[in-house]
Amino acid sequence: MFDRYEAGEQAVLVHIDFSDDNSKEDLHELQMLVSSAGVNAVDVITASRHSPHPKYFCGSGKAEEIANAVRANDADVVIFNHALSPSQERNLEKLCKCRVLDRTGLILDIFAQRARTHEGKLQVELAQLRHISTRLIRGWTHLERQKGGIGLRGPGETQLETDRRLLRGRIKSILRRLDKVQKQREQGRRSRKRAEIPTLSLVGYTNAGKSTLFNTLTDAQVYAADQLFATLDPTLRKIQLQDVGPAILADTVGFIRHLPHDLVAAFKATLQETQEADLLLHVVDYADDQYRENTDQVNEVLDEIGAGDIRQLMICNKIDRMDGVEPRIDRDEDGVPVRVWLSAQQGLGIELLFDALTECLSHSMVQYRLRIPPKESKLRGVLFGLNCISSESYADDGDWLVDVRMPSADWHRLEKRTEGTVSSYVVKH
């Protein structure tokens, strides 16, 4: 019989190479995650497999090797660079006699250390509770059903069932509080839309330099460090763009390959800033050898949260670490900026970024006159909800003549929502 062991600061890292590309992880990234968590890696064990072992994930022989490494190094915790099932965690803990964490548990621990705001702490707790809820099974006899007898008869609820019920109650409580946060953020977004203030959202792989760029553009002095997930709580600041006016810049949490779904669900309110942005500034560490894979991972997460269709401006960061690369703007065949090469830390190319943002946002607003028949009153209500109607009148046949002005991103979302119906009502000049 056993309970979960306490985790410490001395860790044995385990990395398995799989032949399946979808299951592959990066060992260097695991070492950076461990360093970001403040843990000391005393040993690294690697192996190759075609598929995970059902009991130990890594095979019984390799599991014995891990247990020996734990004893030899007096380690407190074993950290796998993969997602483990609850039963695999328990089996490994029985064998190694120490705490076993998977990749998701490690990321959750880092998030718990980084959370500063009330909202951030709630989001982390929600993700942790959802993760823990699948790992409540233990071996203690006090979790068995109550025995019969005088003074011992009762509803028969086990301790395990009680724990699960308490967890469900706490999760519901957190979701209610996060719902209030989401409504407050939605109110702020509606106010910005009414004022026609565009929103720019910094997105990118973790440690790509988003917070450093944010500080350079806004003098916000948010925490920035050369470590994974230095930023957890979102920060919004106003910037001024020539010929555009004010814009809101949002610094968001960094993405990572195989981002746990519990985290995506928990950070829904935060990620909404990305979903509702007019332009995404996709920051890429071009000095990293794996920048292509990291870029693809970010785009996958953006698709997952429903922000894949929003227009992007690629920010090729850290050119100060590359030879022969100067600040510049790359444009497409129509002359529209698509990439800006800069160094956020050295301040190289920042003026070019402001120029590119001005060009992108000056074309971000669309204006149309719509002729809406009376049967489409629901569409008219949707337009009023978007606060995009600048004037309205009636045609002789009773149709509504509506002049709308909105960000192009909102127009594309409206087209998608109405399956193209709204475009058929545009009056051609």
From TrEMBL:
GO terms for molecular function: hydrolase activity. The keyword Repeat does not apply. It is found in: Cytoplasm. It comes from the Bacteria. Keywords: Cytoplasm, GTP-binding, Hydrolase, Magnesium, Metal-binding, Nucleotide-binding. PROSITE patterns: G_HFLX. InterPro entries: EFG_III/V (IPR035647), G_HFLX_dom (IPR030394), GTP-bd (IPR006073), GTP-bd_M (IPR032305), GTPase_HflX (IPR016496), GTPase_HflX_N (IPR025121), GTPase_HflX_N_sf (IPR042108), P-loop_NTPase (IPR027417). Monomer. Associates with the 50S ribosomal subunit. Belongs to the TRAFAC class OBG-HflX-like GTPase superfamily. HflX GTPase family. HAMAP family: GTPase_HflX. GTPase that associates with the 50S ribosomal subunit and may have a role during protein synthesis or ribosome biogenesis. This is GTPase HflX. It comes from Fluctibacter halophilus.
